[in-house]
Amino acid sequence: MRLALAQLNPVVGDLAGNGARILAACRRAATEGADLVLTPELSLWGYPPRDLLLLPARLEAQSQALDGLAAALAAAPGTPAVLVGVAEACGERCLPNLHNALALVEAGGWRVVARKQLLPSYDVFDERRYFRPASAPALLELECRGRSWRLGLTICEDLWVEEELQGQRLVGPDPIAALQPLQPDLLLNLSASPFSQAKGSLRRQLASRAAGRLGCPVVYVNQVGGNDELVFDGASFVVDAHGALLCRLPCCQEAVTLWDAAASPGPGEGAGSLAPEPEPLEQLFRVLVLGVRDYAGTCGFQQALLGLSGGIDSALVAVIAAAALGGNRVRALLLPSPWSSAGSIDDALALAGRLGLRTDTLPIAALMAGFDQALAPALGGEPTGVTAENLQSRIRGSLLMAVANAEGGLLLATGNKSELAVGYCTLYGDMNGGLAVIGDVYKCRVFELCAWLDSPAAASCRADLGLPASGELVGAAIRHKPPSAELRPNQQDSDSLPEYAVLDPLLEALVEQRRSPEQLGAAGHDGALAERVMGLLRRAEFKRRQAAPVLKVSGQAFGSGWRMPIAAR
Amino acid sequence: MRLALAQLNPVVGDLAGNGARILAACRRAATEGADLVLTPELSLWGYPPRDLLLLPARLEAQSQALDGLAAALAAAPGTPAVLVGVAEACGERCLPNLHNALALVEAGGWRVVARKQLLPSYDVFDERRYFRPASAPALLELECRGRSWRLGLTICEDLWVEEELQGQRLVGPDPIAALQPLQPDLLLNLSASPFSQAKGSLRRQLASRAAGRLGCPVVYVNQVGGNDELVFDGASFVVDAHGALLCRLPCCQEAVTLWDAAASPGPGEGAGSLAPEPEPLEQLFRVLVLGVRDYAGTCGFQQALLGLSGGIDSALVAVIAAAALGGNRVRALLLPSPWSSAGSIDDALALAGRLGLRTDTLPIAALMAGFDQALAPALGGEPTGVTAENLQSRIRGSLLMAVANAEGGLLLATGNKSELAVGYCTLYGDMNGGLAVIGDVYKCRVFELCAWLDSPAAASCRADLGLPASGELVGAAIRHKPPSAELRPNQQDSDSLPEYAVLDPLLEALVEQRRSPEQLGAAGHDGALAERVMGLLRRAEFKRRQAAPVLKVSGQAFGSGWRMPIAAR
């Protein structure tokens, strides 16, 4: 049986467009002799559709899209059937009244053949808001090339049942165990699994475990593309009954790849194509690039804009933006104040030159003086301290938004996760933007990514993404200067914060691992420092609530997976 | 049996403080001879605790708070036992691993006596993220005054099982039906039910229905207070077996009220105190006041700040803020531009005078000119159109934030729901603030509220809340001027938007009722206009994602109950 793994990049909510995308994959698969096309979870909607699922008119549009797809398959004999991810209305008024389901669409008709059993409602996921769980396993029997195939069907989380691999699993049935007595020839898992670091390996371990338990190969098809804060990395694959990798699709790009399931595979049989698997830093970089490209594309932006300070964060975002959209579609503003170092301006201009960005330099000193003068009657004098520092950031933010408004560009926020965690950022200032590109990347990781980008190891990735392949990109001058917001003379981040090499591990313990300062103190960390950092973290909640969507690349990002109260103790 | 209905206002996450609050209610109830104290759902945490429930250290703190409460009861003989809302760890590693539960705390010990069966995961609720549902009904048998009492225990949504009253109900068991064979003497429902218009009547209908099905009185205890975007209005009550109201607690304030349950109540027996029930507009006003007061109080703000334009929205927010904090703790900035009418400034100053607000007038013309000059090199000329209009708004937003930063005040955003829906507001400008006070109030309702505030009907409420009781408050000049953003000469909202009397019903159909433009066209509305408004609604999603928390007063507010994708079609 020849399967086409269609690792698609649907647009959220675009039922007609996604139907056309699926049809195109079927037509392409037909030319390569596929018997069945596999698409990701909720492929007709794009994952996550969120509250679009609550709109009755959208559910009607889904039926039309499915009818249209079935009619198109009928109109082109020889086009294979396709498994499509759908939201199935279960005909009851009690809420939730949908199933997260798979429909088999064939020439002239479609029917639901599987329903998801384990519905994630942790982290960024809200599936219990929309869906009710199914309790029965799904087995699809298909006649193909003269024999009957028994396909076990699972949807994403249904495969995530190995507590000791995952750390924690969702309460509920074990869909793999339920399939064992049904003796499938193949297990299919159609997913929309967002990227986070080290998740690729976990997915393969889970698939291997299921393959072993069922004694059959596992075909894992993942969505690809960026949808608001989530980036899906694709990297679909097939493992054999012993967990050996037979086929792997590329990371971070659409692909339709054929794989032949053998009726009774012998050892070593069934190998398909193996796309290269990038190293972790390259994966991270490609994911960020994809997140920016798709957010801009789906929102209809032709160009992006950012403030370039000469610091490492905005430098990294500039590189990502240039890779996502092309340097000629990225515009950089340099917004120096009297406290900006000459080096910063030179470094920013040199970087922009390497990336081919258009730059404008708009000094802000006159506006700073204007605000000082305007505010004096209300403040009884000129603003000082944090008030004055925030004003500089807000002047810059207003200038950036003005250019974005005038040109219809997407402003990219350049703050990193360390800053966002402790509130070392200005609301309505440097936090401005439609997307917080590196808001889930700790400062130490920003340094690592930039060091990698400037290393020979990044050359082929840079070339592949249209960046200059040789020479320094971020540049040693930017990578090696001490972090500074340059909001007062000779300011350095380390005046207000611990060194990032100390801060970042503490934040990871408090945020990702949800440990308390007391626990950290007891474990030998600096408990008083942990307490102080926890206080900063809590007090910055109001800022994060108004932050731009943060591209999620870790297990615990700020955004929809971090739901902390603001007014709390 | 003498019950104390403790309508408490806990602080989210403050386990020790909330324990002390509960203990104080028990001591007060003891002086009035109570046998049992009833507190709201999750009263030890404050509802909603959100992701604080995921922190293991907080669960340990909960155990300590419960132990401390039990010890305090033991130390003061005669203090009644108390039902406390808790998160019960269910001892399994699978997620979610908590129950939303009730603990009976008595002298020297505590035990869980009920677990919630219906877990809301719609609108603003995420209970499936934290809790697993119980499947069994809870009956608590208590010896009291020489007889045994059978108390049916339910938690909030467990009472919401009447599809034809609610429109839609949650899938799952019917906890009331499950209690029928257990023949309770009383049904208790301990809730944290946020305010929305017309919900008070629905709560009483649901309680009356349950009372009829069980043939016993129903005691309904609700939380009171504002927690971020949610405001809990209290208004706890008791109905008899026939649904007649026996006791009612006040709206929007803490109260501990005693009610005597009769062993075999005859007709007309069992009446307790009946606090007055405000009219709908007064309820709405009191809820908004409470929301501001608690947000400011819990976040530790001593004063609030807002921009006063002379328009009706900022006028209403000024009145709410003055009622919440006292006029002497509210500061108003007048930020006139060359396009501001003299009337607007005079009207704003007169309003501030009536409310006793401190004002400063900071003209923005020089800053507008400064930005024009600064931006010219990047824009190839001075900003025009929307870019120029947004700049004015952002200059004002930066001035307001500077004063808020310098003085540690809470900036209140003044935009209404109609504006927030169609994006007739400026991100990083007039949207600035820690709380969007009337972001869930449509413009037409803003007019109604202000007309009510200026009417004799509001006199006693105004006096009660420390506002001037007589004379106009908002003022006819402000109430009767045509809405205008005053961002260009002679601008009126109706230049860009339909009249609010047309727009607001359309928005309500699209937002609250989730109807589509096609459906509205088919139902006789202006389909093309509905389509245009829907487009505006969708395109403003990115602004709302970065909005301040909006005090929710409707069935569908923007905020955590509105989870629409941004990058979508």
Word description of this protein:
The structure is a homodimer of 569-residue chains. Chain A is of the alpha/beta class and 569 residues long. Chain A has 2 domains: 2-263, Carbon-nitrogen hydrolase (Nitrilase/N-carbamoyl-D-aminoacid amidohydrolase); 283-482 and 540-545, Rossmann fold (3-Layer(aba) Sandwich), CATH 3.40.50.620. The first copy, chain A, has 20 helices and 19 strands. In chain A, helix 1 (15-31) packs parallel to helix 2, helix 7 (280-299) crosses helix 8 and helix 10 crosses helix 11. Chains A and B meet through helix 7, helix 10 and helix 11 of A and helix 7, helix 10 and helix 11 of B.
Secondary-structure map:
Two copies of one chain form a homodimer.
Chain A: E1 2-7, H1 15-31, E2 36-38, H2 56-75, E3 81-89, E4 98-106, E5 109-115, H3 127-130, E6 138-144, E7 147-155, H4 163-166, H5 175-179, E8 186-191, H6 199-214, E9 218-222, E10 224-227, E11 230-233, E12 237-239, E13 245-248, E14 255-260, H7 280-299, E15 304-307, H8 312-325, E16 330-334, H9 342-355, E17 358-361, H10 365-379, H11 385-407, E18 410-413, H12 417-422, E19 435-436, H13 443-453, H14 459-464, H15 476-480, H16 493-496, H17 500-512, H18 517-522, H19 527-539, H20 541-545
Parallel strand pairs in A: 1-2, 2-3, 7-8, 8-9, 15-16, 15-18, 16-17, 18-19
Antiparallel strand pairs in A: 1-14, 3-4, 4-5, 6-7, 9-12, 10-11, 12-13
Helix pairs in contact in A: 1-2, 7-8, 8-9, 10-11
